[in-house]
């Protein structure tokens, strides 16, 4: 897969934020964490994913099921 076509990671949950620690890949400080707890910048993780297609080291959050009109109980 072309690196320009690599999907971006979705790390919106609070699970990905902690105190600054050196990024596993570039060694600069980052408050971000992977799902495995590795300190890593999102852009560094996306670059690593693009360079290692098929490997599952850095993944996106699971997406919640989208609501449909029939689900509105308000």
- Summarize the amount of helix as a percent range: 10-25%
Q: In percent, how much strand structure appears in the residues?
A: 5-15%
**Regions with pLDDT < 50 over 5+ consecutive residues?**
none
Question: Strand arrangement, largest sheet?
Answer: 1-2
Report the total helices. Answer: 1
Order of helix and strand elements from N to C terminus: EEH
State Rg: 15 Å
Tell me the distance between the termini.
44 Å
How would you classify the helix and strand content by structural class? alpha+beta
Shape: flat
What is the quaternary state of this protein?
A: single chain
Sketch the major β-sheet.
2 strands, antiparallel
User: Would you report the number of β strands?
Assistant: 2
Residue-averaged pLDDT, rounded? 85
């Amino acid at each position: 897969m072309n690196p320009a076509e690599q999907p971006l990671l979705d790390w919106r949950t609070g699970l990905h934020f902690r105190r600054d620690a050196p990024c596993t890949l570039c060694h600069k400080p980052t408050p971000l964490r992977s799902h495995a707890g590795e300190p890593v910048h999102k852009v560094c993780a996306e670059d690593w994913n693009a360079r290692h297609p098929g490997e599952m080291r850095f993944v996106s959050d699971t997406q919640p099921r989208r609501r449909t009109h029939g689900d509105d109980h308000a």
